[in-house]
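Fold it.
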Amino acid sequence: MKFNKLIPELSVSNFDKSLKFYTNILGFKIEYQRKESKFAMISFQESQLMIEETNNHWVTGKLEHPYGRGINFQIEVDKIKPILDNLKKNNYPIFVKPKENWYRQDNQLFGNKEFLIQDPDGYLLRFVEDLGTKPL
């Protein structure tokens, strides 16, 4: 397994609940885990995350729900529909419904079909399907 140069590690309040959410609902794969530490390295296509139950090793302040205020994690996927289907099947709420967005970079627009959800601790996850580019 090749490790990405940046791999966010999320402190979670309930490891088992989060691991089930990421693997059973979103489709992440467990790359490895340390059950005794309530830790797992997980991946989805080419994205990687680590989750670990809060243990005061990395706490820089009081953790209150929703965690991760001020950040969203963009996860590029081949297709967003299978994820949306699993979320619907599991009756999991969508934070921002799917829509197309076009973002300007210089003289080009980059398109994404995207939606946002909150994980069980409130971290924002933005799943993105690439729609290509077009000129301004």
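The helical segments are 15-25, 81-89.
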